[in-house]
Amino acid sequence: MSQSLEDILDLVGNLDDSSGDDSPRERFRRYLKTRVTETGMFRDYIEECLRKKGDQYNRALQDLVNHLGYLMEFEVEFGRYRGVQNEIGFDGHWISRHTDTHLVVEVKTTEVYSIKTSTLLGYINALVSEKKIPSRERALGLYVIGRPDPDIKQLENSIIAEKLSGQLRIISVSSLLSLAELMSDYDVTHQDILSVMQPSRPTVDPVVDLMSKLVAGSTEEKTKPVRVGKEPGEVTAETGYWLTPVRSDEVETAEEGVQKLVVNESVYAFGERTPGRKHLKPGDWICFYASGKGVIAHAKVTSKPEKVPHPSVRNPDLYPWTFRVDGVEYYPENPVVIDVKMRGSLNEFKNRDLTRPWAWFVQGTRRLVEEDFKLLTHQADSIS
User: Fold this and answer.
1) Whole-angstrom Cα distance, residue 145 to residue 109?
2) Which of 134, 184, 310, 319 is the most exposed place for a label (fewest CB within 10 A)?
3) What is the dihedral sign for C-alpha 33, 38, 44, 49?
4) Which pairing describes strands 74-78 and 92-96: parallel, antiparallel, or unpaired?
5) By the 8 A CB rule, do 137 and 146 touch?
C-alpha cells in the first residue's frame, strides 16, 4: 500500500449517500473490496481514521468496519451514512455465511455523546418486520467503538441496567481488527468469531485481549541477551532496546498510565510472564507503545526488575516486577505512528509483506535493534 487513506479519499471525493456506480461512496467501497484485502492494510487505514477528525474519516471508518465483516465471512449490507425517514438507519447488516445469525452494526467513533440503546433495538425490530431477519432470536446488535473512553461507560452500563446483554454487544474497533487477524493467520474460524460475540459481559474486548496475548506469546521471538567479548576471557552485555505495549482499559488510558508511572514516578512494572523481564537490565532503553496510537514515550532503564510492588501500580498482584527509569521523553501529542511507511523502514519487517497483519509487533514486549529503536522514538542522533 503506497497511498495513505487521505490520498484515496481525495481521489474518490466527498463520501455521502449519493447513489450510482460512480458515486464517491461506491468508488471507495470498490477500492476497499478489490485493493484492501489484507488486515494489515485495514489496521493502517482505521488508525488513520481515528487520528484524524471530520465526517469524511467517520464515514470511511464505517465502510472499513463493514469490510472487516467481509473478511470474517459475513455477507454485508451497507447502511447509510446519515439516517432519513422511512429507511432503517443501521450502519451495517452482517449475515453469517454459515449460520442463520445476523449482526446489526452501529459504528461510533467515540462514546463521548450519549448513545440510546433503543435506536439499535429499533433497527433490529424493523429488519425483523421486513423479513430481512427471520426472528429477534437470530439477531444481535453490535456497537463498534473507535475510541473507547475508560471514563465513559454509559453504553455498557445502559446495556447491563436494561438487561440487554442477550441482545446487544460492544467491541472496540481495535479488538474487531484483532479478531480479523486471528481468523486470517491462525486457526480461528467464523464459528469461533460468533462464539466470542456471546460473553457473559456485554463488552467483548477482554476475551479478544486474551486471545491476542496467547497468539503474541506463541509467536514472540526469543529475547535472550546478546553477549560480546571485549577482551580475551571477558564477556559483557550489550545495551538492550525494548518496545512494550501499554493498553487503555476501563479505568485509565494508555497515556494516563504512562504519565502516572513513567513520567511522574520514574518507574514501570511487568507481569510474571512479560517477555524479556529476566533480561531487562540497567543501561537498556525502553519505549512505550499506546495501542492504536503509536510510541508515546521512551526512557533509560536504571534498575533490574525486582518483585517489589509499587503503590502507584494498579493491580500490583498482576504486575509485581518493578524497575526504575530516567531520562524520560514523553510525546503523546506527537506519537510515532507505526504505519506502512514506518514499517518499511524497520529491520523487523525486512522481507515481509507490509500489507499482512502486523499487530504481533506490538502485542507483547519485544527486543529491538538500536536502529529501529531510534526510528520509533524520534531520535536522529545516537543514544549514548
Assistant:
1) 6
2) 134
3) positive
4) antiparallel
5) no
pTM given for the model: 0.73
How many angstroms separate the CA atoms of 251 and 174, rounded? 18
| Residue 377 to residue 296: CA distance in whole angstroms | 8
5-218, what's its fold? Restriction Endonuclease (3.40.91)
Whole-angstrom distance, CA of residue 365 vs CA of residue 235: 25
Q: What are phi and psi of 98, to 5 degrees?
A: -120, -20
Instruction: Give the residue carrying C-alpha cell 430481512.
Output: 132
pLDDT in tens, 140-177: 999 999 988 766 578 888 898 999 988 999 999 988 99
* DSSP character at residue 136: G
Q: β-strands 321-330, 294-301: how paired?
A: antiparallel
Please, which residues have CB within 8 angstroms of residue 163's CB and are 6 or more apart in sequence?
none
Under the banding of pLDDT at 50, 70 and 90, the label for residue 34 is very high
Name the region of 373 (left: φ>0; alpha: ψ -120 to 50; beta: rest): alpha
Q: Do domains 5-218 and 227-376 have the same CATH topology?
A: no
Angle between the 39-51 and 55-71 helix axes, to the nearest 10 degrees? 160
Read off the C-alpha cell for 244.
Answer: 512494550
Whole-angstrom distance, CA of residue 102 vs CA of residue 76:
10
Choosing among 3.40.50.80, 3.10.590.10, 3.30.750.24, 3.30.70.100, the CATH entry for 227-376 is 3.10.590.10
Cβ(38)–Cβ(353) below 8 Å: yes
